[in-house]
Amino acid sequence: MQTARAWAEIDLDALEHNLGRIRARLEADARADPSHTNARPPRILLVAKADAYGHGAVAVAHRALRAGVAGIAVTTCTEALELRRAGIQERLLLLGTILEEEAPTVLELDLEVEVPSLEHFRILERAAGRRGREVRVHLKIDTGMGRLGAVPDEALELVAAISSSHHVTLQGVMTHVAAGRGIADPTGREQLSIFDHWLNQARERGWLAPTVEVHAGNSACILSGAGGRYDTVRPGILAYGVPPGPEWELTDYQPVLSVRTRIVALRSLPTGATVGYEGTFRAARDSRIAVLPIGYDDGVDWRLANRGYVLIRGRRAPIVGRISMDYTTVDVTDHDPLELGERATLIGEDGDAVIRIEDLARLTESIPHVLLCSIGKRVHRVYLGQERGSSRPRVSAEGPSRAR
Ligand SMILES: *Cc1c(COP(=O)(O)O)cnc(C)c1O
After folding, report:
1. Atom 4, ligand 1: which residue's CA is nearest?
2. Is 176 in the pocket of ligand 1 (CB under 6 A)?
3. 172 lines ligand 1 (CB under 6 A)
4. Residue 114 CA, closest ligand 1 atom number
5. Ligand 1 atom closest to residue 176's alpha carbon, by position in its atom list
6. Where would you tag: which of 108, 156, 253, 321 has the fewest CB atoms within 10 A of its CB?
């Protein structure tokens, strides 16, 4: 960390705290939902695609599994391979779907995989049949997302085909909700009512064993109160302590990630001097500028130029001039004299001040998911609170032990 120009601090205790909050919410909603048929609160499959939204999938998965999640969801075989190589033997669900040539890897790594169409079912059946293996699948129903999934009628055919297959086992049935407000949005409610209607039809025809795991809940669904309805949920962004959209204000979750760097140069520029490419900032007074060795390759959004700010000694320093590939320049004229090597915070807390990723999303007209995923490879991931010498799950099936 001392030698890193820029680093991300990943607070794994905060991750565990957030998983505890999610679990408490699911328990409360499962109790309150009269349509919920399970006595058990839903299981959590933590979504850790895209390197756990930039947090580092291996460390996140290890800690989440120790905290009691049922499995990890990723998107690509490469991501799954990384987790298996890191010794993770628990359930891995491949979200989305696969190309035909990926089917052998799915079998080798013992992945569960979404099946969105009859063609994908056939690919998996052929691959599993050839190896005399079984593959567990989650039938994906498109209830309005319009991306992957079988429309309800196709899905009835598909579930029938799966139930007569020798090599493909129906592990789950799932859908994905498009609205950032989940069921607080009418389209979200509509999607889940299409899903419920489909589930009833499939059950009436005897194609859904009680052991089949039903799931729909992403972060927005959980926050909007739909998390307790089915057997399993798939939270991503919420587990990282970040709201899934601008509608949500999180009060009892903790951001897991902070991004920091250190001042690499300090400049004094006279009135009228310009800073950065294209001279988009011109000093209106004699100014002191701190140069930070972090740029858009590291995930500093280009749109923060002359708009964003960082925190140094607990107070804001406005970003001036364009963001470069490797550098960001900030105005520290109003700070007490600073020294080379001092810490600057781009995301996270510094003293009493804080910059949340959702603040940056608002400033850049982006969404937190995008900003998290753009944190670059050069930013070292530093894990805090990782090991405390206990492998005992602290979030038990009975409930979170650290719920507040
Ligand atoms: C990414 C993803 C999720 C998690 O979404 P969040 O909004 O981050 O909670 C859940 N399900 C599927 C299918 C996904 O692709």
Report:
1. 236
2. yes
3. no
4. 13
5. 13
6. 108
Q: DSSP letter string over 32-65?
A: H-TT---SSPPEEEEE-HHHHHTT-HHHHHHHHH
> Closest ligand 1 atom to the C-alpha of 95?
13
- Please say whether the dihedral angle defined by the alpha carbons of residues 187, 191, 196 and 200, taken in this order, is positive or negative: positive
Q: Is the CB of 140 under 6 A from ligand 1?
A: no
Nearest CA to ligand 1 atom 14: 95
Q: Which atom of ligand 1 is nearest to the CA of 222?
A: 9
Does an H or E element contain 265, and which? strand 265-269
Distances (CA, A) of 345 to 168, 218, 313, 403: 49, 30, 9, 29
Main-chain phi, psi angles of 381, to 5 degrees: -95, 125
Structure tokens at 25: 């919410």
Beta bridge partners of 113: 94, 137
What three-state secondary structure class fits 292?
strand
User: For residue 320, which of 267, 378, 259 has the smallest C-alpha distance?
Assistant: 267
Pocket test of ligand 1: the residue of 142, 176, 357 to mutate, having most ligand atoms within 8 Å of its CB, is 176
- What is the value of pTM for the model shown? 0.92
Decide: 323 in ligand 1 pocket, CB within 6 A.
Answer: no
Q: Which residues are marked as active site?
A: 49, 277
Q: How far, in Å, from the CA of 37 to the mean position of ligand 1?
A: 24
Asked if 329 and 320 count as a contact pair (C-beta separation under 8 A), the reply is yes
Q: Helices H, strands E: what count in the chain?
A: 11, 22
User: How far is 223 from 219, CA to CA, in rounded Å?
Assistant: 6
For ligand 1, whether the C-beta of 244 sits within 6 Å is yes
From the CA of 52, how far away is ligand 1's center (Å)?
11
Residue 117 near residue 123 (C-beta atoms within 8 A): no
